[in-house]
Inverse folding.
């Protein structure tokens, strides 16, 4: 698969997501954990969406999860993506679901429920969590 | 005891502009055309309109969409009720709900509910009208940027993820999605308002290109320019107005949201489950009493999951339920009888609502369903996030 000449859109860390992206650079998948009810969440919000507590800690996730669902994109929306590619929702062991891509597998072999583990995709100034079959 | 709002109001006016690849008019001009047609249809004078509820389509987000300024564009100076509403594809049904409640409360008499959109340009594809993040300037900020970085663009992605989950959990097949598209096209063949009227076979369905697996092009709704307006009036006024009234018997909403963590079944359990209980209780009926379904059909899958959530079949059995073609002409559950958003026109929630009014009036011509006593009309928006329902009837009681 040839890489497109144009970069895909890369996130720019903002204040609430900075520890997540710093963790990614260090090879650690970081989640927010509510200090009151203990629910894990993906960052970018200062309140727990279970109990509305504003108090939280950052915890390192195991990096393991399962495929919740996926699609295989054939429509060209952005020149930075080589078609077709998968868009996959991984449910992490800790509970939160993350929208990502599976690597190291043919799209035709992806199955809902399959175990996966995090793998880091490094770009110049940001690192993204992708997943591969466990 | 009957619910106090059951049959309290009726839809008395309907105005529809040409819809589809219609160019050269702004959303305000389209809305004004639809409102003028609706007022004429209802036999009213403009000054008798005392309520205006406005829903901009995608242009409300991308630019050029309707605003509260529509009031002055239309020169409506006697308003006792005014709002600009947005709960995505559930808005049209919601506007009728709030109009009904306002009328029952004595806050308004004749309420115009209007939708207009003009996302299509002569030089671009339908797909270019939606898909947002793919053309956003600069880098996406924070965690939301993970979606764009994964190539998640537009509603097509969200619904593909939902449909795939249903297939994996319940064994739903591509053919079953396809049958919904085929059944609806068979209705559109007899709808002069429909954009796509060529008959479609299952082979055509499978031959249509992938957008995002498991969605073919023919699983996805159209994109249309145009406008639709309806007028809601008190039932006691409606009886003496020119058009056969279409009474509002039941109303309900359901918005389960998605917390994006374990435990959420947003893909397969939608707000329709909640709306169904409220709407059926108000109307005093159940799914077995419904004669016609006009269901929001942004995708074939939306129809399938909505049928399950209203209890027409058990959860997970939507695929086998639709595969015998019972949704099509001559079938036991006529559904999306104008072709729906897949084959007729995409006016968000006004697509099912306009066809429900046409069928309720008995004005469907070659596609009119004989038994039209109770019509279920639904709206859905977001990624199955927002849902609103109306149960409509040509009968006052």
């Amino acid at each position: 698969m040839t890489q497109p000449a144009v970069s895909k859109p890369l996130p720019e860390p903002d204040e609430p997501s900075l520890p997540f992206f710093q963790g990614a650079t260090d090879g650690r998948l970081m989640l927010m954990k509510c200090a009151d009810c203990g629910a894990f969440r993906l960052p970018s919000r200062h309140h727990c969406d279970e109990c509305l507590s504003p108090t939280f800690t950052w915890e390192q996730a195991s990096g393991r999860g399962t495929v919740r669902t996926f699609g295989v994109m054939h429509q060209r929306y952005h020149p930075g993506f080589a078609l077709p590619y998968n868009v996959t929702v991984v449910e992490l062991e800790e509970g939160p679901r993350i929208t990502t891509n599976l690597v190291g597998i043919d799209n035709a072999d992806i199955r809902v429920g399959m175990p996966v583990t995090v793998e880091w995709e490094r770009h110049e100034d940001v690192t993204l969590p992708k997943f591969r079959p466990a | 005891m009957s619910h106090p709002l059951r049959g309290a109001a009726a839809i008395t006016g309907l105005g529809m502009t040409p819809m589809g690849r219609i160019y050269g008019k702004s959303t305000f001009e389209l809305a004004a055309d639809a409102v003028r047609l609706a007022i004429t249809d209802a036999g009213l004078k403009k000054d008798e309109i005392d309520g205006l509820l406005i829903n901009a389509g995608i242009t409300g987000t991308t630019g050029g969409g309707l605003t509260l300024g529509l009031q002055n564009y239309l020169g409506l100076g006697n308003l006792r009720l005014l709002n600009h509403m947005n709960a995505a594809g559930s808005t049209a049904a919601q506007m009728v709900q709030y109009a009904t409640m306002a009328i029952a409360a004595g806050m308004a008499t004749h309420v115009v509910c209007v939708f207009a959109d003009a996302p299509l340009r002569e030089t671009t594809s339908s797909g270019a009208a939606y898909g947002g993040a793919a053309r956003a300037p600069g880098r996406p900020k924070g965690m939301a940027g993970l979606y764009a970085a994964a190539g998640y663009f537009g509603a097509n992605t969200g619904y593909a993820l939902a449909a795939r989950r249903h297939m994996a959990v319940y064994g739903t097949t591509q053919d079953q999605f396809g049958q919904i598209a085929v059944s609806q096209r068979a209705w559109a063949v007899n709808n002069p308002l429909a954009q796509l009227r060529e008959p479609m076979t299952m082979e055509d369905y499978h031959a249509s290109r992938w957008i995002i697996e498991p969605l073919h092009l023919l699983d996805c709704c159209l994109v249309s320019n145009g406008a639709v307006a309806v007028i809601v009036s008190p039932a006691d006024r409606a009886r003496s107005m020119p058009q056969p009234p279409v009474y509002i018997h039941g109303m309900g909403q359901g918005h389960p949201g998605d917390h994006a963590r374990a435990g959420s079944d947003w893909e397969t359990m939608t707000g329709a489950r909640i709306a169904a209980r409220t709407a059926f209780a108000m109307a005093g009926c159940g799914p077995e009493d419904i004669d016609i379904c006009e269901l929001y059909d942004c995708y074939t899958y939306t129809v399938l999951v909505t049928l399950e959530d209203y209890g027409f079949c058990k959860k997970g059995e939507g695929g086998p339920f639709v595969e015998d073609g019972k949704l099509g002409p001559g079938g036991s559950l006529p559904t999306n009888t104008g072709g729906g958003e897949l084959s007729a026109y995409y006016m968000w929630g006004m697509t099912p609502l306009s066809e429900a009014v046409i069928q309720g009036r008995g004005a469907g011509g070659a596609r009119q369903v004989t038994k039209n006593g109770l019509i279920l009309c639904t709206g859905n928006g977001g990624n199955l996030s927002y849902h609103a329902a109306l149960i409509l009837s040509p009968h006052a009681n």
In short: The beta strands of chain A are 30-34, 40-41, 56-60, 64-73, 85-92, 97-100, 115-122, 127-133. Residues 30 and 60 of chain A are 5 Å apart (CA to CA).
